[in-house]
Amino acid sequence: MDEGTGSCGMALEPDALAEILGRLPPNTRRRLRLVCRHWRHTVDTRTATDLRPRRAKTIVATAETAYVYEDLSAAAERPRELWSHATAASFKGMTMLGTCNGLISLCDDREPGGAITLANPVTGETLPIPPLPPPSYAGGNRKWHRTYSFTHHPATGRYKIVHVPQNLDRVLVFTLGEASWRDVPTVYRGARCDLDAGIVSADGYMYLAVEGTEARVVSFDLDHESFTSVGPLPAILSRKGSWGLTEVHGRLGIAFTHISQDLVRTDVWVMEGVPGNPKWSCWYILQVRRLPHQAASSLWMHQRHCLAGPHFAHSGKHILTLGASNFVFIHVPSGNTRNALHGVVEVNARNQGRVIINNAGQNNHSATTKTFCYIETVEQLSVYKCW
Q1: Where would I find the F-box domain in this sequence (predicted)?
Q2: If 0-12 CB within 10 Å is exposed, 13-18 middle and 19+ buried, where does residue 342 land?
């Protein structure tokens, strides 16, 4: 093989090569990029390591169904069912945790500790993950899915599942390809994780909030498995309101919500830079004004729009919200503004967005309906089973 000319003794047709490489773990594919130019081009453009927005789809999932949207900008598009009770009874009642390179993680809160299963809808494979070691799941019934994060490190190619107990003395880490969970001690002995704020993974880090009188966010380096304080947070968090963590186009985001008599405003601040030395910019603003028929304050709060999660920003052009009756709405933000670099969405009587899915009749939307960025792959889960 001559790397300079790009010729390779293992000459394969592009489709056949992409099919073979797509079945390998991401870290193996990265090493195989060095074989020749042809292989490097195929890995970069035709396998799951290519995470560019042009390939991204959108999943809208509940505890009962999951649908895929190929292109949110197509007004007449009908979503494709990924699974339902009828097609995948084994997923019934599970909560979807996240997606990484086309692999999907689900949590069954009915099992002690929350049983984790990985799935690849394209190949039809599933991979149950070994349960947490006792006494990690002591404490009875709870919403276990809130304590997990399914992550991928872009440089090493490793997939990890991280369990975050509310007591932050330690976290537990399961790396795909290994046989068991590992205890990782933290420097936050006695501190508690604020599970209401959410757990977010982005660009090789996992982020979580620490309970306390002041807003505090820490990062977990997925490569070195060490914690660091994120550093100064947006000044807006010192105001009266609520906030939570989100992911915005591969970056950490903080969504701050302030409620007044006739307006609910959510500002999304995105971290640019690295933990310990962050720089924050306001990327989006969502303003929801009280509609004329929502005279009672309690009714308005129940029916108002809120940002979908954990991924609300899709394809670089749209944001998704959840509204009354479990509807999912799509919006196109206004152009860049002085106060929001990527635009403002105004929801009012004349503009409530376009409905893309109606989950009416299912459970409360804030607890069950989630939206995810998704890239299909034929990567095999069986290569990771070693227990």
Answers
A1: 12-52
A2: buried
Report in angstroms the alpha-carbon separations of 115 from 109, 111, 145: 7, 6, 9
pLDDT of residue 303: 54
Helix or strand run (H / E) with residue 39: helix 37-46
What number of CA atoms fall less than 13 Å from residue 151's CA on the CB side? 29
| pLDDT, tens digit, 9 for 90 and up, residues 301-327 | 445 689 998 999 987 688 999 887 678
Residue 114: exposed, middle, or buried by beta-carbon count in 10 A (0-12, 13-18, 19+)? Answer: buried
Asked, as a colleague might, if the bond just before 130 is cis with ω within 30 of 0, I would say no
- Given the structure tokens 């130019």, which residue do they identify? 37
User: Under DSSP, is residue 109 helix (H, G, I), strand (E, B) or coil?
Assistant: coil
CB count in 10 Å sphere of residue 363: 13
Please compute Rg for the chain using Cα positions.
21
User: What's the rounded mean pLDDT across residues 158-165?
Assistant: 95
Q: Alpha carbon of 221 to those of 26, 116, 246, 276: distances in Å?
A: 19, 22, 17, 12
* Strand 227-229 versus strand 217-221 pairing type: antiparallel
Quickly count helices (H) and strands (E) in the chain. Answer: 5, 26
End-to-end CA distance of the chain: 38
CA–CA separation, 28 vs 32, rounded Å?
A: 6
Q: What is the DSSP letter of 60?
A: E
Contact 31, 21 (CB under 8 A): no
